[in-house]
Write a structure and sequence with these properties.
3-stranded antiparallel beta sheet; elongated; 4-stranded mixed beta sheet
Length: 308
């Protein structure tokens, strides 16, 4: 079963707290994971940001909503307990609790209104940052980020396919330099070698020039097959190189990928179109930053009065 959304977690979370004890949130999360019969893979599934597991993030947001409505309390750092109102709600034997149900509580509506003002949106149009049922704000932000990044990848790849082969080779060189190859800053250290059976250039691997990397740049639409890769590997002997990289705007055939996995004495890396665009974005080659969002969270250590 898929990981339950945060609204589906609300009622089970209250039930976990129904014994009247103060629970540590890590124990609540564990109890809920057991109750939902999550597999090890589902427990370990991470948000796209890689900063938190998907399930613990949803438990935290379920707690935030319930606390805003006054159904649970936060007696101390990292702990939760059931409020009197939460106990009364459980006694009614509800089948589920969701954001719409919580709107009956003024304190919850205040939080919705604050969220709405922060987003310059009418209160009635906002489900406390839940435009897609069950998705937390962090999930939505990660999802939007990934969608925007994918659009940029496709845009970069489209531009690369339109440029001339000569310009594409220059782009590849700039990328490798941005990644730390090329030796001394400002020295391109790449020499066109069109006569050497497919080697488009050579770049130093480090500042001391202790090793070199052969380059082949393929601005192609079709699939790059094994013969092209095999020819490149063979041509590396002309410069006594042991390392090489082939970068293309298209993709590599299965035979080509299998071939580089089996060669001995040389290391060749194959970079296809989407990977190439990803690397350009990561190293700011051909792209410009537009907006930077910095998310912050409360430092529990700062507010711990028992510390220093």
């Amino acid at each position: 079963m898929p990981t339950p959304d945060f609204q589906s977690i609300m009622l089970p979370l209250l039930k976990v707290l129904s014994d009247g004890r103060e629970w540590r949130m890590r124990d609540v999360t564990e109890a809920l994971a057991v109750g939902f019969h999550l597999t090890p893979e589902e427990r370990e599934e991470m948000l796209p940001s890689g900063q938190q597991t998907l399930f613990s993030n949803r438990v935290a947001w379920a707690k935030t909503h319930l606390k805003a409505a006054g159904l649970l309390l936060n007696p101390s750092r990292g702990k939760a307990s059931l409020s009197d109102e939460g106990r009364r709600i459980l006694a009614t034997n509800l089948q589920s609790i969701n954001c719409r149900f919580l709107r009956q509580y003024p304190s919850y509506l205040e939080l919705v209104a604050r969220t709405s003002r922060a987003e310059s949106t009418a209160p009635e149009a906002v489900e406390i940052a839940d435009p897609e049922p069950g998705r937390t704000p962090l999930e939505l932000m990660d999802q939007s980020f990934q969608a925007l990044r994918q659009a940029t990848v496709e845009d970069v790849l489209g531009k690369l396919k339109e440029c001339s082969p000569g310009f594409f080779e220059k782009v590849v060189v700039k990328l490798l330099q941005a990644m730390g190859y090329g030796g001394v800053a400002g020295d391109a250290l790449v020499t066109g070698r069109s006569g050497d059976a497919g080697i488009d250039g050579i770049i130093k691997e480090d500042k001391l020039g202790l090793d070199v990397v052969c380059i082949q740049a393929k601005r192609w639409e079709g699939t790059v097959g094994r013969p092209v890769v095999q020819g490149f590997v063979g041509s590396m002997d002309f410069v006594r190189a042991r390392k090489g990289v082939i970068l293309t705007t298209s993709q590599f055939s299965r035979d080509a990928i299998d071939f580089v996995d089996r060669i001995e004495g040389k290391k060749v890396v194959l970079i296809d179109g989407p990977q190439l665009a990803d690397l350009m974005i990561d190293h700011n080659v051909g792209v410009l930053p537009t907006k930077l969002y910095e998310l912050k969270e409360v430092s529990n250590d700062f507010f711990d009065e028992d510390e220093g």
